[in-house]
Fold this protein.
Amino acid sequence: MASAAGRRVAVDWHQVGRPNHDETDTGRYQQGLTASLAARAQPGDDIWALVAWPGAVDAVGPGIGHAGIGHREAGRNGRNVRRMLMTLRPDVAVFAHIAPPGLPVPFALVMHDALFATHPEWVGPDERERTVVRSTRTVARAQFVIAVSEVTRIDVLSVLDLRPERVVVIPPAPSLAFAPEPAAGARIAARYGLDRYCVAIGDTGARGNLAHVAEAAGQLGDRRLVMVSPQRPPRGRQDIPGIRFLGPLGDADRADLFAAAQLAVAVSFYDGCGLGALEALACGTPLIVSDRGALREVVGEAALVIPPSVNAIAEGLRALEDPAVADRLRAAGPLRAASYSSTRLGSAAWEAIRSAVSAGR
């Protein structure tokens, strides 16, 4: 246990470092949360990552311990995670979306959306354990629930039987790797042969709306503008014509890709977190986002906000051909992203954890 003056916190990393998978917003949020807790820890506090994959070990930063390595089933849903927690005895364990049953310690739950109830057709194979019944049972056992945006908080409260005071909004923060970088262009040109390109942010399923992005880019008739994605190609179906998939990318390569881009688009049909949009803003990339989910909430006035239709996306792309518009957004992005800092994330998380631990004693 941590000292009497401190608190021990364990954070679920089951979506970090998974073989043959892109790093998701869920996994990157958990990483950022862990690092921010460690950076804002007080004497006696103790932070641990519940590592499920060997590939995640190198991502464990200063001031963070890692508790064992196991495959997904053993590392998260099976007996291994319970054994880890019985050994660590944290004051709080923080899980993403769903926690394993029979946990021997108090836990909090991070929620990125309520798509399991509102749009189950958008929930991928790795998330189908999220159902209304199971999510209701899980949140009933949680000490508190973290919503990654105000939009997510509203959605979660609308579908689950939760008292509003049990849901706290703790937005994400881009890692320090994401910042304007003049030298990024040379590295991207050498690595990928890219010069003039747009980064398409979003998953490769229907929710990500990448097909509309590719179609809108085709309307421009600008053969020099290449559409690229930091994701790996879609699994189990053909590529999306008109988009070059470069992933999976670590933070350094992903930050270079944003920093050297002419612009970026995040026009999914729903995004409850907006972490990819924040990363683009932090790099000073002129950005277009859809008016869905939390994207408008995240970008404020620092991006163009449009409907996620083909014609609207095309009009947004044309608008950013105006140097004055692009330069305004390039300057506004880092300022907006700075309000979503690691300090803010860590301070809010510690406040919620200490309040919950005190209330439970």
